[in-house]
Design brief:
Length: 111
Amino acid sequence: MTPRRPLPATLPCHPCPHGSACCAFGVMLFPDEAATLRRRFGAAALAWDGESGTWRTAVVDNMCWFWDRLCTIHEEPFYPRICKGFPWRFGDTDEDYPYDVTICPELAGEE
């Protein structure tokens, strides 16, 4: 297994200088987050990922449903935990983010 490159102390995540490239995939939601987002924004904001068996934010025009040049829910209390923890932690756990951090050009060395 190839070790990950060390993460920088901070990332320029909001606003992102890379057009929010990581938001092109939508994000996995914990059940309580999916329920809250469904109540607040309706079913169009969510997509079921049958492969992982989880709800995700929907992707429209190759970007997360909540992205409109900036994340429209970034400052809200229901901002997804995966987004808050990326790329250091898996949500609000002490676990490392287990997925591909190279979705961020900053981490992929493409800055």
